[in-house]
Design goal:
Elements (H helix, E strand, L loop, with lengths): L2 H10 L2 H12 L13 H19 L4 H16 L1
Helix pairs in contact: 1-3, 2-3, 3-4
Length: about 80
């Protein structure tokens, strides 16, 4: 998981674009947006995380606060 890629996706794509990319990945197709990652799983992770950031930004969070909130949830789920 690369936070720089997640942040880039969240800043450059809408929630609907990210959802379409998610659906394409589930159907084993190439998404219509460019997603960087080492493999299909990492690309899907980036798309899903970017969706989370966009949803928080739509609620009024700054991109940095949205990244912090997501990172905290990931850390809590691991520990």
């Amino acid at each position: 998981m690369k936070m720089a890629e997640i942040k880039r996706l969240a800043q450059t794509h809408t929630l609907s674009e990210l959802k379409l990319a998610e659906e394409a990945m589930y159907e084993e197709q190439e998404p219509s947006i460019e997603v960087h990652g080492d493999d299909e799983g990492e690309k899907l992770t980036h798309i899903l995380a970017a969706q989370d950031l966009v949803q928080n930004m739509e609620k009024g969070m700054s991109i940095n606060d949205a990244v912090r909130a997501y990172s905290q949830r990931v850390r809590n789920s691991i520990s």
